[in-house]
Amino acid sequence: MSETPNDLLYTRDHEWIRKEEDGIFVVGITHHAQESLGDVTFVELPSIGQSFEANSIFGVIESVKAASDLLMPVTGEVVAINQDLDDFPEKVNEDPYLSGWMIKIKPDDNASEHDLLDASAYAAEIS
Q1: CB 122 within 8 A of CB 30
Q2: What is the largest CA-CA distance in the chain?
């Protein structure tokens, strides 16, 4: 059974976001996504300062099974990346919601969370 924390929002493409108190969003992939990929072997992340539109590719994740694009949940600018994933990509498998986070973004003023799913809607999508 997949874990779907209630305090996150989700995309249909299996990314999650968590809004921090300062308005920054933390982004990663879901437990369901990492489970489907298998053992993660490499994560390619963008540079700090890059901006992306919602649903555009911001990186790539590779596993023993496949390579998949990472899609931006909302429009925004990358303000931090999880550099630990360079040496320890398996953190995505071990703890996708905490130590396996990928990027932090400052959302655009016009960024919309309306297209994102709450935990129950995402759970229904993957069941």
Answers
A1: yes
A2: 38
Can you give the pLDDT at residue 2? Answer: 54
Burial of 15 (0-12, 13-18, 19+ CB in 10 A): buried
In the chain the domains, ranked by start, together with CATH numbers, are: 9-111 (2.40.50.100)
Give the side-chain half-sphere CA count within 13 A for 105. 26
Q: Give the separation between CA 118 and CA 4, rounded to whole angstroms.
A: 9
CA distances from 59 to 51, 69, 72 (A): 12, 6, 9
Quick one: which H or E segment has residue 77? strand 76-81
Please state whether the predicted TM-score (pTM) of the whole model is above 0.85.
yes
